[in-house]
User: Fold these one by one.
Assistant:
Number 1:
Amino acid sequence: MHKKRVVVTGLGIIVSNGTGKKAFSEALFKGISGVKLISLFDTSGFKVKTAGEIKDFRPQDFLGDKGLRTLDRSTKLANSAAKLALEDAGLEITESNTNDTGVAIGTTLGSVNSISEFDKEAMREGAHYVSPALFPNTVINSPASQVSIRFNIRGFNTVISTGFTSSLDAINYGADFIRLGRAKIVLAGGVEELCIQTFLGFYKTGFLAGLKDRDIELSCPFDERRNGIILGEASCILILEELGAAMERKADIYAEVMGFGTAFDPYRVNKYTLRTEALKKSIEQALEKSGLTPDKIDYICSGANSTPDGDLVETLCIKEVFAGKAREIPVSSIKSMIGECFSASGACQAAAGICAIEKQMIPPTINYRKKDGRCDLDYVTSGARSSGIDNVLVSAFGPSGCNSSLVISGFRS
Amino acid sequence: MSKRIVITGLGVVSSIGIGRDAFWNALVGGESGITEIVSFDTSAFPNHFGGEVKNFNPYEFVTKRRFSRIGRASCFAISGAKLALEDAGINPGVYEKDRIGVCVGTTMGETQILEKINEDWVKRGVDAIDADSIPRYPCNVLSSNVAIELKLKGPNYVIPCACAAGNYAVGYACDLIRSGEADIMLAGGTDAFSRIAFIGFNRLFAVAPRKCQPFDKNRKGMMVAEGCGMVILESYDSAIKRRAPVYAEVLGYGLSCDAHHMTAPFSEGIKEAIQKALKESGIAPQQVDYFNAHGTGTPANDREECLAIKKVFGEYSRKLAVSSIKSMLGHTMGAASAIETVACCLAIKNDIIPPTINYETPDPECDIDCVPNVARKQKLNVVLNSSSAFGGNNACLVLKKPS
């Protein structure tokens, strides 16, 4: 079957170390961290004080002053990133293309603050007094739907919630819809806001860094000192376009979306394990569907998030898939700079992969100081590195059992 | 669209019955599952009725140990999945588990887990929140829990596209089989009774006091409900090979977004989804024998949906049978369109259209044939299942009698 090709023609990103493709790309290659003291909520009483919080986020800079009053932070972030992405792609949604344009967003806890506060307000104030205008924010597909409403995108609007893999899964969903001929343009990516609910969730379940006295509160993937996640927040939206449509409007093409693989590991409940089977399978599937042998991968944009077993299991998988070549392939984790943005992470990693292809440069794993004997790959720990990059492998996985991998390649007609 | 996809198993957990036969008998009998709400105290609300699942014994489906670690929506999903597998005659133990996936739609996810967290938080402070309950909340657990229970390693997705989520999930699951990602998919939707939804719909004045009356001139709104619908999807070839009974073939589906308003339904968007579904399925409007409506019973939904039906079907809309099973079940949120798919499969199998009950007074704005109050025997070949959701999202599925 002749398959339609899917390319990336725009990138909108808002994350703690940069807003917009240019700023994000610069921060990435300079190794700038976006992790700072949390100011969105009061952290007194908690041992953990830092996160990859987006400071000074002013949605009106992107969206104007109107229609923002009842929107939650995730929705404003998603809309702002969508606006940046459309502008970056030089794309306007009009009556002639709106029905061929869709939205596919990965998020899992993007609405949890709205949902929880709505319920708590009703409990405190009485069910008669909670504002009905805030009720629409309590559906998980609200941030994505608001993107369609604001930019008049009528083709389809889908949200994928698979935890850590959500936005990578959403990018693949969007690409699938283009391949199936259901859409020509898809705004695909993810959003996850930093809020007290999400923080509490990761804090109380013991996933955060710095929870124990001897533990350092730092995102330092692959480093022996790693002991957990530094949370982040982000919205990242890619403009996916059918190649023919992109060429027709003479769009700048950043990269091509290639093969994707996904596999579930049902032998655990919400914890990292060292079982490699599922992540390995997702990587192998992604390579196979891209028609690439392992030696063709030039850079692995890793999902490692500074958890002891998470970083190790990815290292083990890379060794199993890439065998003798494993140590020659640069592997880096941008989560060292932006923290773990949960469902938005995969899209941010894809964005980093696109920047890497554009600049022919690999972003570093920052905060790396102490070698862990079991994590012994090339983690690009002493600053960004110039390198020939055609094919980037992006991997996403988490403690829930979902594993997804995507290949993004430099565009060749 | 090369590979043909069929439905070979049905699982349902609902206020009118658990399991295929109990559900279908109640549906054909026009029974209502609406009762006084017991999940939480409703004394602060003007309305006290909803569609809760009664007589649900989780231990028929999961062990005590599993039950203590999952929320009600997951428990419904596992139960629905097991019922569907049994119905399809599939023992997942003998299949390649890499090739079986799960795709689940939802609106509120494990809402009761979060509601308990909120309650502890407000009444007793942050420290009182039970840490063990936290990982049971994020909505991605719905499909994970099904896969963990059944040890399934294939694609695993939750699609939280609100009240049309079931159709999104079944549609995408078909895509995954067509593209070779899986051989068998367990797909559907699940939602547990939600205090948050109940508060919200009451604040929107969208809740009916006692009964749901879709298409009736005096309809007063929807009823909040809960439940789960799951179907087994596989390729036609696989079903034939294992001599499985086939309920229906999924011809195609259509999605659309109104891009208009978060909560107000909009006929143009509904029309668009129906037309896309028909086009993808290669079906002309006049070939549709039965239209399973979203039919929530709110004044706006039923008006806009009827308008969309008239736009798509023109003159034929007067002859087309349209019914809403929400008149019996209430609105089961993300489970609704999945349960409706189960109903459509059984309608096709039995050549019977389930009725719209509680219908009393015709509404000129809804002048369609809503199969009022009594089930109807009618030969069914092509059936359409339409659904709409918050955010202006619409999803429509086309099913056909197996040939």
Number 2:
Amino acid sequence: MRSRGLLWLLVPLLLLGQGVILTSAVARREQLPGRGETLYALPSPLLKAMVLEYDGIVSDFIFLRTLVFIGGTFERAERPRVRPQEWDWIRDSLIAATDLDPWFSDPYYLANSEMVWDAGRVLDANLLLEKGVHYRTWDWLPPFMAGFNYYYFLHDNAKAAPLLMESARRPGASPVIATLAARLANASDQTNNAITFLEEMYQLASDDMSRNLLHERLTALLDIQALEKAVAMYRERNGVLPERLENLVTAGVLVRIPVEPYGGRYRLESDGRVVSSSDFGKRAE
Amino acid sequence: MIRIDGVSKSFLEGVRRQRVQALSELSLAIGEGEVFGFLGPNGAGKSTTIKLLLNLIRPDCGTATIAGGDVADPAVRRRIGFLPENPYFYDHLSADELLWFGGKTCGMTPSAIDARSELLLHRVDLLAARGRSLRTYSKGMLQRAGLALALIHDPDVVILDEPMSGLDPVGRRLVVDLILELKSQGKTVFFSSHILSDIERICDRVGIIAGGRLRLCGALSELLTEAGSLESVFLDVVRKADGGEVC
Amino acid sequence: MLTRLWPIAVITFKEGVRNRALYGIGAIAVFLLLGTQLVCSMIPRDVGKVAVDLALSSTSFAGLLIVLFIGINLMAKDLDRRTIYMVLARPISRGQYILGKFCGMGLIIGAAMTLLGGAATVSVLLTRVLYPNYFDKFTLSTLFLAILFQVLSLLLLTALSFLYSALSSTSFISLLLTVITYLIGQVTTDIKALVETADKVGIQVSAAMTFLVKAVYYLFPNLSLFDIKLQAAHGLPVPLTYVAMVSGYWFLFTALALVAAVLIFERREFP
């Protein structure tokens, strides 16, 4: 009878003991050599065979893991937030997820929202988006996003225009897209095009992060649009371009020069266009 | 009623696929209404013979017929009731469901099955346990449920493999009474056993098998007048058979 | 014929359904309802697709467990514990025994998949109530068709497991062969494609290997034909001709497996 009581006492002790050891063992495991370098994505033909009939759910799982990984990087102190090889892994994971289920929309949108603005991996993102264009034949968003990226970041109107036309043809697309596609074809009025594009994108954005990004971007573009208008007005009055943007204020065309949202400055080019000195312009390259 | 003509059977055994002769040129005939006791030491071929009669194994040569039909024909088994040695049925079925299965496979109507189950379960003293799953049955109860299953379709030929093994004296008494009752109804009963006293009590004829050969077959009364007791006959036959094997 | 099959089917069904293992299936159904909501709350957009993925993956996985652990056991236990003596002592042929067992297992699969499919449908519809915006292309009919195809695939696997039970002497061998058949059946299309376009992927495949892969491709069932989970998840159309073809393939292959099982079982002895 007494030994039975001892045995009962052992149960919570053992339970507690394994819990304690588990915690420190997991912590030790984190420090094992090779941790952190386990970022790899399996090649798709192998993966497709290995997942048996569970393509869909494994695709969901790979996508969620990528999403969680990206979410985790926002807590990092280091800059840049995501290392280059990690971007490679993110790209490979999203490719794997869409190889398993090419109709799954979230990986395409994630590629567009994460890899374009932050990482500047526009080509990678467009490779994915064009797969989305091919499979999600009823969805106007992938061609629109891919078209926007070609136009805005890669300055490739020839590739952007047909994608936008494709997007305009699909159900649910805004009629503005068709106009944009037509205008892109003759490469004029770039700032206005960009604003129209961004306003569309801003309407679409579902999360605060990309809304903020787009909002900043839109503000900058609207500023540039206002500045270019002011420059044109100055030229009309004075017959010459102003030497510097500040001249617009002294001439009374503008009340003040707007603050560039990325921490840089707006600058007047010799041909009358206004550009930003901050890296927002460079990042596109 | 039961005829076995010149049946031999060998099995391939072990990893080296050695041929083991289980039955050699066995011939046996059992008439209608007879109670036949089939005796022999362990491994003599009793079970093999019975499985042969149920087409569970096929003879290498020779034929076996029951009621004039080849045992390979499933329709023949409509007239046979069989109780396997150490019967094992399904865990989650009840005795009632087991009997329903037995009756249904023989093409009985539901009302006939009901009436017959009632009677048989009463006879084997399982009325109280009829709804319980067979998993909860003791060995003796399973044996009795098996008897009820063997008799559910009122067969003309009843084949029982070691029906008394593992039963307590009350259960054994029940089986003995049941066999005598079948005999009085004019049924043919073929059963194997090594409990000689029971055989002495109920059999018309006995056959003794040893080493796969039928060593002795005859009316019980004749054997008893010749040798005195079944036990001495049995031991004598088995000893001779063993000697024969050695030579 | 049918009057002899029916009793075997019924006792097989009763024996299988009263097995404790089925409680596990019920647990999977409940887990499915709760788990789907949890996962779906993490997905930004394609909630409908993920909900259908989860629902259909759970049903097919649970169905597979039923075939592997209840189906094979029902047949193998008869042989292991010699219940077969009692069954074959009845006036039924070996063929009727196999077909009756198959019908009983069909009833079990049908009942379990109705339960699981019901839970899956409820979980998908519940998700649709919570996230109505992401279900525009979803149709219930494709979801049901996907579940029906899963049932067909499980029945085919059951027929093959019976063939293996008829061939082998222990249930472990049957289990192993059935698992191998399932694995091959799911990957056979991918592997054949891989071997045929080996140079594109940049791997070397010998002629003997190509032959082996092709032999396996035609000998084993192609279970991936029955997998239309992705189509159901995205509401993509499944043409009637495809449904007819796959049903035909199912019928022929199941019949092949059962006929082979009967032929082998007819010859078998039970010492």
